[in-house]
Structure formats: C-alpha cells, structure tokens
Amino acid sequence: MYGAKQEGRNRYHLFDPQRDRAVRAHRLAQDRIAVALAAEEFVLHYQPKVNMRQGSVIGVEALIRWQHPQRGLLPPLDFLPLIEDTDLIVAVGEWVIDAALRQWQLWQEQGLDLTVSVNIAARHLSRENFVARLAELLRAHPAVPPHRLELEVLETAALEDIGRVAAIIEECRTLGVSFALDDFGTGYSSLTYIKRLPAETLKIDQSFVRNMLRDPEDCAIVEGVIGLARVFHRAVVAEGVETIEHGALLLRLGCDIAQGYGIARPMPAAALIDWVRNWRPDPAWVANAGPTGSGDDRPLAIATAGQRR
Fold first, then answer.
1. Is 93 helix (H, G, I), strand (E, B) or coil?
2. Rg (CA), the chain
3. Which residue, of 47, 64, 67, 136, is most buried by count of CB atoms within 10 Å of its CB?
4. DSSP line for 125-194
5. Does residue 85 contact residue 124 with C-beta atoms inside 8 Å?
6. Do 233 and 201 meet the contact criterion of CB atoms below 8 Å apart?
7. What is the DSSP code string of 52-74?
C-alpha cells in the first residue's frame, strides 16, 4: 500500500515477501551500525606508507574496523556498503577524522611525527557543510598541524561532479589539508580531470600494482600513471605492494612511495611505534634505488573513511 502511494496513488504495487525480508534485514543492519557508533565499537587500524628509496616511514592510512561484541573484528567491507548511501556514512566519516587526529596527537607526544590520511565517502564530501565541519574538527585538535591530514577521495567519486569536488578541495586546501585521488586508474583518468582536480597525490590502484609483475598491460598502466604524476607535478603512491619484487620494479619505474602487505598489514595504533622503529627497507630496494627517483620527497598522509580496506 505504501509503495503504491509513494508512486503516485491510483495504482497497485505487488508485495514481494522475499524482497520485504531483505529490506527489513538491511534496515536492521543499518540500525545496528548506528548503535555501534554510539557505543564506540569502532576502532582504527593503521597501514604504513614508506619511501622505499630513502628507507623512511612517511605516513599511515587510517582504516576503520568494527570490534563487534559477538562476531569479533570486522573489516569495512562487512558494514560500510550497508550505509554508503545514507547519512550515517557522514557520521562515521567524521568519527574517523576525529579519531585519527586524536591518535596523531598521542603519537606526536611519543616522538612519532607522521602524516595521517583518511578516506572520505562521496556522500560525505558532497555535504554542503563539509568544509565547515572539517574546520571544526581541526579546531578541536589545535596541536595537529592541518598539513598532517590528507583526505583520500575515490577517483570515480570525484568525477561525478568534478566542478563541485574541485571547489571543495580548494576550500580544504585553504585550511592546510591535502588531498589524494585514491584507486587512480579505475575511472576515466582523463588528463583534463587530473588538471582540474587540485589533488596533490595520485594513488595507483592496487589491482594494477599486484598484477604488474606478470601482466605487461598492468605494468604499462602503472608506468603511465607514474609518468602522468611526474608531468603534472603530483606525488604518486603505489598500493598493493605485496612482495619485494613489486617494490624493486616500482623503484626502477620511478615510484618511491608504497604501501601494501609486503611492507606491513594494517595494525592497531599501539603497535605502530615499535614497527616504525624496527622497519628497514629490503636490500633489493636499496640496490634498485639509485641516485634519483620520483623527485617528490613530500611526506604523505594516513585513513574510509581508510575505512574501506
């Protein structure tokens, strides 16, 4: 009845018991996620980003996890897709930013100074008050330099309304915050878009990086993105570095910054300091480093709304 009314009255709508059960289950799952947020059941894990050529840890990506009371630690794909088209994704995104900034301050007090990057969902970024809320979160953590926060936006999300996204990025940059285009290469990857979007960093999608050792076309895509980043004066980060060989090839191609399971898996905040102190680049990377690289030694950042991995 309500379905028929919503479609304009004077019509009928067939009841589908199976679909009704699915809709109810989906709604209940969303309600449970809202309860989890209020009950502080979410936690952040952090995956390091390293400069393979210099042998230094330059940042981390903050990645959300759900510490479910019954089901244990859940990855973001188990719950974020359920809320990505609702305003709840905005509340979760703001929680991630706030938690990452609080953690940065704790690390800084212990002598660890890294950049932190946070994934931002398209619905969150498109909110009219996004910049104002971001400014409020930064003011709530005055000890954190804004340039230590990087926001990662999916390339496909940025291209949905490139003019508006470009304007939002510019406003955020006035606050001192930087941007990265995440999963680069999975969208249109037009030269016009690279030129119009004032994001400082391109992150090569991990699907290309993982297959680059055995797929010449994926390797060519990786090399092409590295070349585009150099031409447009952008930093470039390779995701999905799973082996020493991946890192060695990336260095030969001119990409110095990487993250992936071959470097470190996402870890709790408490484990990061010891990991940073003990990490050393593989000797094969040192051998392939050479005197020159991508030419960009700027520190990059942590994570969505990282939240996604």
1. helix
2. 21
3. 64
4. HT-TTHHHHHHHHHHT-TTS-GGGEEEEEEHHHHGGGHHHHHHHHHHHHHTT-EEEEEEETSS---HHHH
5. no
6. no
7. TTTTEEEEEEEEEEEEETTTEEE
**In the numeric block, which tokens belong to residue 242?**
């799973």
- Comparing CA positions, the residue from 285, 162, 188, 302 lying closest to residue 237 is 302
* Pair of tokens at residue 216: 């010449």
* pLDDT, tens digit (0-9, with 9 covering 90-100), for 138-149: 999 999 999 999
Query: Which tokens go with 82?
Result: 């359920």
Residue 303 DSSP code: -
pLDDT of residue 293: 46
Nearest alpha carbon to residue 198 among 158, 231, 257, 258: 158
Q: Residue 141 contacts by C-beta under 8 Å, 6 or more apart in sequence?
A: 98, 101, 102, 104, 105
176 phi/psi in degrees, rounded to 5 = 105, 0
Contact between residue 67 and residue 111 where contact means Cβ atoms under 8 Å apart: no
- CATH number attached to the domain at 40-289: 3.20.20.450
Question: pLDDT tens digits, residue range 69-116?
Answer: 999 999 999 999 999 989 999 999 999 999 999 999 999 999 999 999
CA-angle at 31, arms to 27 and 36, nearest 5°:
145
Helix, strand, coil percent content, the chain, rounded in steps of 5: 50, 20, 35
Structural domain boundaries in the chain: 40-289
Place of tokens 């994934």: 119
Dmax over Cα atoms in the chain, in whole Å? 75
Q: Which of 81, 101, 98 is nearest to 33 (CA)?
A: 81
